[in-house]
Amino acid sequence: MISLLMLGSIINYLTRSTLAVAAPTLLKDLHVTEQQYSWILNTFQGAIMLQPFCGYLMDAIGLKVAFAIFAVAWSFICMAHGLAHQWQVLAGLRGLLGLAEGSANPAGMKATAEWFPAKERGFAGGLFNIGASVGSMLAPPLVGFAIYFFNWQMAFVLTGAMGLVWALLWLWFYHSPEQHPKLSAQERNYIISGQEKHLQGDGTRPAIRSILRRRNFWGIALPRFLADPTWGTLTFWLPLYLSQVRHFNLKEIALTAWLPFLAADLGCMFGGVVVAFLQKRGASLINARRGAFTLGAFLMTGMAAVGFIQNPYAALALLCLGGFAHQTLSVTVITMSSDLFKRNEVATVAGMAGTCGNAGVFVFNAVIGGLVAVTGYTPFFIGLAVLDLLGAAVLWTVVCDPNTDHSN
After folding, report:
1. How far apart are CA 59 and CA 54, in angstroms?
2. Residue 340 in contact with residue 399, Cβ under 8 Å?
């Protein structure tokens, strides 16, 4: 199940990263400015903030059918990008893509909560979130290949078609633990007995107003708002930064732009390792996750120096450190939705927290698009380092650990 989820996440992030890699070529063909490019990006970010709708639908009608619908939708919308002939059309398609692709994170958290006992959920969440890094990592060579041998339109057709294949695999193979025909009674009991009893849920639809009144929701949503701009910067602005500031050509971008995402893959696993290490030394699950987030936030401070480094490959190394650090902290705070909320609320909470994260990316994109031509990228790299430290402070002061505080 986790392999199937990870593959879906890979394709989800591959399709959303296609535009960024194609941007240096596409922007020239369609005569799109940096400001207009930021507007295109933000139609996606605005629409993906509707993740609570995706999560609520999954909690209400079931994960299998709802996620398949969204996957088919994002695949066709991605292929339709190849038909865009002006930036306004491209912006509209990005908005539709954002709405459909906002389903990935709630789906992953809901499936992880269903299929894994608490002691394995952090590792499983790390594996699922590797998909985001791998998809973004595959985009530069794959899209670069399509553009070099065909054109930028073919890049969108190719990545969109992959999504349709995965949707068929999802419908064929995914079942909940209660309904999986090949799951033994012993395995099913192992999964269920290892999950927190107070988070089992009662099958009712999630109450959004109730969730919004809980401090634990804001304790994980606000760090997402502060941390996710790093991922947005790496995903949407890195190829342009390498092209405009470091003067990389298409071949050099294809050969190097995936490296921060390879580092991010390692960060996904490292976050889970840190949590396990801290738990073995007596930390509660929540405190262990907070500790992993804080370590990642301190590692992120290295990204502040990117703009001051003259050697482009040294700067790329610091961007790789940023990718590693971000996924170290990101996977921990994302997984906390399944640690703090009931099974019938997880997808909704993950979607709502994802909305806050994407709101952060939205704001950051708007500021970059408006100011990068004047200030350059250096102030934004410094800002990314500071925001994660603020996120760590929020996580420690706002979230209540259910093992020590039952007031929330």
Report:
1. 9
2. yes
Report angle CA 160, 166, 171 to the nearest 5 degrees.
135
| Residue length of the chain | 408
Task: Look at residue 401 and give its three-state secondary structure.
Answer: coil
**Residue 225 to residue 107: CA distance in whole angstroms:** 20
Residue 185 CB-density burial (10 A; 0-12 exposed, 13-18 middle, 19+ buried): exposed
Mean pLDDT by 10 residues, the chain (408 residues): 83 86 84 83 82 77 86 92 88 90 80 74 69 78 85 90 92 79 71 57 65 89 92 83 87 84 86 88 89 94 91 93 91 82 76 84 79 82 92 92 60
Q: Quick one: 2-193+213-398 is in which CATH superfamily?
A: MFS general substrate transporter like domains (1.20.1250.20)
Domain limits, the chain: 2-193+213-398
Q: What is the dihedral of CA 178, 184, 185, 187, to 10 degrees?
A: -90
Q: What is the pTM of this model?
A: 0.67
